[in-house]
Q: What sequence folds into this?
């Protein structure tokens, strides 16, 4: 299944993708940089910045936990949080997820779906995942 993430809400899309992965489907998500996070720009940036800084706050000598800065990796991490990743079933489901920034050449002519459940409803403030990633210092 190929999903176009442009304009879809991060949490709603991640929950739908995680359910499909647990059912055994292979899923490819395109345009991860155009997925929308609902909420204020400053709030979204502070939330992800706090996660990145958490590694040095807990123990400066120990490097971890690692949190991604690229939009495709942020989406993968969000989906991973919704799967039973520490169990074999969750690990196998997570391996069948592919996420891309933009659209790769081999998938240009394929038909991509946009789930109705993941589309925004009454969202006043939002920011794209690519912009948050850029604020965090990503060079995607």
A:
């Amino acid at each position: 299944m190929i999903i176009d993430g442009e304009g879809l809400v991060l949490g709603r899309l991640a929950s739908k993708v995680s359910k499909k992965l647990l059912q055994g489907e292979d899923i490819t998500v395109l345009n991860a940089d155009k997925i929308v996070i609902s909420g204020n720009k400053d709030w979204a940036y502070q939330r992800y910045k706090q996660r990145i800084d958490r590694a040095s706050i807990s123990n400066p000598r120990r490097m971890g936990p690692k949190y991604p800065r690229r939009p495709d990796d942020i989406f993968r991490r969000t989906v991973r949080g919704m799967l039973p990743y520490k169990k074999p079933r969750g690990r196998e489901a997570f391996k069948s997820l592919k996420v891309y920034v933009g659209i790769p050449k081999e998938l240009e002519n394929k038909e991509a779906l946009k789930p109705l459940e993941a589309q925004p409803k009454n969202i006043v403030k939002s920011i794209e995942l690519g912009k948050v990633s850029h604020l965090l210092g990503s060079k995607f």
